[in-house]
Amino acid sequence: MARRRHSNTATPPNSNDETTKKAVNRENLKEFLGIFRYVWKYKTPFYIGLFFLVLSTTTSLLFPYLASMLVDASTASEGMPYSVNQIGLFLVGILVAQAIFSYARIVLFANVSERAMADIRQDLYNKLISLPLPFFEERRVGELTSRMTADVAQLQNAISINLAEFFRQIATLLIGIMVIAYTSIKLTLVMLLSFPVAIIATMFFGRFIRKLSRKTQDALAATNVVTEETLQSIQVVKAFTNENFESLRYGKGIGEVVRLALKTAHYRGLFVSFLITAVFGGMVLVLWVGFSMVQAGSLTLGELIRFMLYTFFIGAATGGMGDLYSNLQKALGASERVTQIINTPSEVDLTKATRKVKITGDIAYNNIIFSYPTRKDITVLKNLNMQIAPGQKIALVGASGAGKSTIAQLLLRLYDIDSGEIMVDNNNIKNYDISALRANIGIVPQEVILFGGTISENISYGNPNATKEEIIAAAKQANALEFINSFPESLNTLVGERGVKLSGGQRQRIAIARAILKDPAILILDEATSSLDSKSEQLVQEALNKLMENRTTIIIAHRLTTIRKVDTIYVLDDGQIIEQGTHEELSAVEDGTYQNLLRLQFQEV
Questions:
Q1: pTM
Q2: Domain boundaries 23-183+330-349, corresponding CATH code
Q3: From start to end of 450-510, where are the E strands?
């Protein structure tokens, strides 16, 4: 009980922590800019959005200047070119213009980013479903889903928000510094002695606080794992009377959460106190010197207010640079992961229509040697040879791990062999378009996975263009129509996620109907009745017998009673064929492997 497997739920694959950031260099900047090819498709609204971004930034920077003029106009008796009312109207006009420019900029950038990200998501999805099976065996589903969601969202923020903010911050810094320097060099030097210290401290100390906060979140995630594991295995917990053990384990995790949270609060309190002292101290110093200059007549009150407003703008812009740089690092990491998938070679070209090929079902496995890509040190098939004539029904039997399912997977080209060749109708399967090859092969697996839609949608997956009459005919041939019609919504009945609302036998018959609708030349039955009760097995077997008519069929068998009538039985052991023949021939071999398997199954019964 004390030893638990590590759960993948503790740390999401794309949580916003330091590991998602990338150091900024020429290579990943090039990859990030490569993502902009999706933006260039909408370059007209993008450039117009940039134009409105310039206008909105310019109007926002004009506001402090006009405000200072308003103060001077109200205090000066003469010498001002504009009156208070005129400047006030200018301010109102600036506010209205800024509102219009900001609205236009936001809408235009949203238009570009939403459409560009939709294109990226579509390309990502198209790429994912066209990649070979080994790609998915090396990655978690959660990781790939994160590429579609969190990473693309990070890129969208970089285009629609961070780009605008970066331009605004740079413009504010440059123009703000020029304005305050023009207003008063002396006061600018005083400001530069105080505010930068606070700003730099905020950037570095803020990063330290964020790291502490992430540690607290990780500790809380660890306690959530304890909760999830315990509740999922509550029967085991109670059977072993380990309620106290689990309570102590959870309490230990909560204690760590509290310790880290209090430590974070301690440093946050020190940080806020320092920030208040530094920022307000700097403000006091600037105001002190500034009002002394106003009193001495070297600075007007309006100029002092202008200086202070632009100083606040500069401080906010500088403080925001840290977050912008952090977001840039995250966007670089996201672009690298996205482009890595997009640039992965596909096995299916979705841009080209699949050319249909008619196959008779003549199959030959010649000197096949194969190891799975993730386990190259283990040879699964060892110089395997097998011939299957068109329309012939053969069965593969043997212990688990003997290579039965692998033979079927290689025919589908889910994996490529290490050496040898697989021939279909006297052509190497590598010479076929992979989609055209698979279009001629149907499979009914042991563990049927249905989509969460309706029964009709799941059956028509074998032929998306099938009519309702063809779907009904396939269901009837699969012995499925009776139970389908027993549901109030018949074919429109929702099967639930992975088909959970249907029994095992019902799911199998849906899978058979799907294969019937596909009408393949070659059929693979992967232990299709091994997990069913006797009644369901009888119905499924009847449907399978209809499905196998006039098709080349490969049966991966666990129950040997279901393969008595096949043309040839191949007995596998350790990736090799050790016996072959009919049921009668193999059962007559004294001390043969097939005879022993048959004897064991009769003993189990």
A1: 0.70
A2: 1.20.1560.10
A3: none
Task: Report how far residue 100's alpha carbon sits from residue 503's, in angstroms, rounded to the nearest whole number.
Answer: 60
Domain covering 363-604 in this structure, CATH number: 3.40.50.300
Mean pLDDT of 591-598: 80
Helices 84-129 + 301-342 axis angle, to 10:
10
Residue 1: the pLDDT is 38
Helix (H, G, I), strand (E, B) or coil at 591: coil
CA–CA gap between residue 136 and residue 129 (Å, rounded) = 10
Find out whether 64 and 310 touch, Cβ atoms under 8 Å. yes
| Residue among 528, 531, 511 at smallest CA distance from 460 | 511
At 27, the pLDDT band (50, 70, 90 cuts) reads low
Q: Which residue has the tokens 């009847």?
A: 542
Structure tokens at 574: 């350790």
Q: Residue 3: pLDDT band by 50, 70, 90 thresholds?
A: very low
422 forms bridges with which residues in the sheet? 365
Strands in 576-581's sheet, in edge-to-edge order, are 441-444, 522-526, 552-556, 393-398, 568-573, 576-581
Interatomic CA distance for residues 147 and 108, integer angstroms:
25
Task: List phi, psi (to 5°) of 156.
Answer: -65, -40
Domain boundaries of the chain, sorted by first residue: 23-183+330-349, 185-298, 363-604
